[in-house]
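DM from R.C. (forwarded with permission)

"hey, sorry to bug you on a friday — could you get me a structure for this? deadline for the figure draft is monday and I only need the backbone to look sensible"
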Amino acid sequence: STLNLISTHPSSTMRTVALVLALIAGATAFTPARQSAWVSTRAAPARGMVSMMAKKSVADLSPAELKGKKVLVRCDLNVPLDGKTITDDTRIRASVPTLKYLLDAGAKVAACSHLGRPKDGPEDKFSLAPCAERMSEYIGSEVKLAGDCIGDETKALIDGMDEGQLVILENTRFYKEEEKNEAGFVEKLAAPFDLFVNDAFGTAHRAHASTEGVTKFLSPSVSGFLLAKELEFLDGAISDGEKPLAAIVGGSKVSSKITVLEALIKKCDKVVIGGGMVFTFLAARGMATGSSLVEEDFIETAKAAEKLAKDNNCELILPSDIVIADKFAADANTKVVKADAIPDGWMGLDNGPEATKEIVEALKSCKTVVWNGPMGVFEFEAFAAGTFDVAKCLAEITSSGTCTIIGGGDSVAAVEKAGLADKMSHISTGGGASLELLEGKVLPGVAALDEA
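My reply, with the result:
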């Protein structure tokens, strides 16, 4: 059943849930994962009761409460397109469980979403028409596209819907008022509907009309299954992830990761540093880094992070050896050197084999592992081993009971490329939303939902 596609939801009446610490990379460069990893039937080992964001879920609404009701659902249908062709429909598939649950209950459902970044009003290349066509295949019946997301024609279409019918409203960002959360636009968007379901975690950190504004006019306002699952994993585990907790933080820049890195150092027993960030840390230790990427302005920040780790009894793990190259290219000359022996004119592009062995050994004893950002330039085969070996390690420890979270575009892309996405406990759909939740910020799209 649809309910089996999620591990838990925030109802206080449900059984004890499995919760894990999750960290997601920034909103940019997000590459979706397969549905098997997004909407997973895999249940992590029980962790015990914890406090969590007590928000109502769509599963708290009975079929009797939904039958005949006009429901506005905020989905994330922001799929990658090549012209009019969808190149990855994961986000559409991830929306199906919530939509099917509502349709099966006899609701009249309208899904809304943004797509791309329209600059000035409607642009055909950002139309949700391809999404409506693809959604029809997964729902098993025709899904019409409304020509607009507000207005008399849209209201008439919704009023005339049959029970168990789905339409998709045209791109909400065709109106600048969407991102401004402008009151008049919000009222028009909410006008045809009886209740609201937010299933778009990736935009929950934005107080937009379709994520936060409509909750002022529609009651109940509840989470969908996908959003509920993200909150279970993120919010619960931040306060009560099973120890030992480890985070693997990769990516190119300390500047873009420092806030979340500091938060993780305070919460984790071990933090592994990988990717281009390594070289700012090595420079902070006084080592030569050749022509590797170093953010000079963040050397003091790296030193402060090392001190923070020491003060919080967090083991900070940097690679002991590095795969270096004479240029940034797939066909570069390469060699492996100790981390303190990078020669001039050479740049580090991956962890060395000894570093990988040490990381794998450190992770084996952990009960919860978060992975955010690759270990090297895995897009080039010569610099992929460090990343793929970590992916294999996580797949292995997941099978023996460790909770593993893959968060962030490049980490997701890496486990996808390694063919291991469905071996992980959870792959998150969020971007900036997850970072902000981890940093302790309030997500407007979540805060606005009804309390459980």
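R.C.: lifesaver. DSSP finds 16 helices and 17 strands in the chain.
me: no worries. The two ends are 23 Å apart (CA to CA).
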